[in-house]
Amino acid sequence: MKLHEADQGHTYRIKIKENLDPGVIDWFSGLTLTPVENGGTVLVGPFSDQPALRGFLDQLWNLNFTVLSVDVVTNENDRISDA
To answer: pTM, whole model, 2 decimals?
Structure first.
């Protein structure tokens, strides 16, 4: 991997068990929130590097959200699958 590729970060799809209240959307600025039909929420957005992703996951943990999955988005279809 070239150095400049590592600096670009990746887009991730994070699925959580909880349904998010619309009032917390501001806290997730920069992310797209999609409710899941059978419960839960999918959050999609860019993270500059692994420490940024880890910090966000730590914040979800501190807020008592249950993270069900974390996936790298490799194409547009990945953004919405399981939503």
So the answer is: 0.79
Q: How far apart are CA 14 and CA 30, in angstroms?
A: 13
User: How many C-beta atoms surround the C-beta of residue 16 within 10 A?
Assistant: 20
- Give the CATH number for residue 37: 3.30.70
Query: The tokens 């997730």 sit on which residue?
Result: 28
Q: Name the token pair of 80.
A: 């919405």
The segments of the chain whose pLDDT lies below 70 read 1-8, 76-83
Task: Round to whole Å and give the CA distance between 79 and 43.
Answer: 9
Give CA–CA dist 20/42, Å, rounded.
10
Domain that holds residue 30: 3-80
DSSP structure class, residue 72: E
